[in-house]
């Protein structure tokens, strides 16, 4: 793990982002360094947008049917409002140009699970 990725992961953990498989996320960020610099600002924005009861989970999603993998930030809350997907889109709009030119892919969504 390079110091840059290690520093990013430490910042994410400090702001309470849950990373169940640190090594998988680290490998993905190493392979997509242009995406790695966006992760901390995105998580900070999402935490501000979704208040105290939201918890962010950062994971690498692997499609079981085709060889595809990408980072996913799941927003999990104790209670979900009807417009949560619209709020996610709104929060992410400022990052779309940078994400569009990044070598990796990031999905920000919810799976409507409760935070663990």
What does this structure look like?
The protein starts with a helix and ends in a 7-residue tail after the last strand. The chain has helices at residues 3-14, 22-31, 33-49, 84-92, 96-100, and strands spanning 55-62, 69-76, 106-109. Strands 1-2-3 form a 3-stranded mixed β-sheet. The protein is globular, with a radius of gyration of 14 Å. Helix 1 (3-14) runs parallel beside helix 3 and helix 3 packs across helix 4 (84-92). A hairpin with a 6-residue loop joins strand 1 (55-62) and strand 2. The model has no long low-confidence stretch (mean pLDDT 92). It has one domain (3-109). The protein contains 5 helices and 3 strands. 46% of the residues lie in helices and 17% in strands. With 116 residues, the chain is α+β, with helices and mostly antiparallel strands.
Low-confidence runs of at least 5 consecutive residues: none
Largest sheet entry: 3 strands, mixed
How are the strands ordered across the major sheet?
1-2-3
- What sequence of helices (H) and strands (E) makes up the elements? HHHEEHHE
Number of strands: 3
User: What general form does the structure show?
Assistant: globular
Strand content: 15-25%
Number of helices: 5
Fraction of residues in helix: 40-55%
Q: Could you tell me the mean pLDDT?
A: 92
Beginning-to-end CA distance, first to last residue: 27 Å
- The computed structural class is alpha+beta
How is the quaternary structure best described? single chain
Radius of gyration: 14 Å
Kindly give the count of domains: 1
């Amino acid at each position: 793990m390079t110091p840059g990725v290690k520093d990013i992961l430490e910042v994410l953990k400090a702001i309470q982002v849950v990373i169940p498989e640190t090594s998988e996320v680290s490998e993905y960020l190493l392979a997509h360094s242009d995406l790695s610099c966006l992760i901390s600002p995105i998580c900070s924005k999402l935490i501000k947008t979704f208040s105290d009861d939201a918890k962010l989970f950062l994971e690498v999603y692997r499609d079981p049917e085709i060889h595809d993998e990408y980072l996913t930030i799941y927003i999990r809350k104790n209670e979900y409002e009807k417009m949560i997907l619209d709020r996610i889109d709104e929060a992410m709009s400022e990052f779309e140009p940078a994400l569009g030119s990044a070598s990796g892919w990031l999905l920000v969504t919810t799976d409507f699970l409760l935070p663990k």
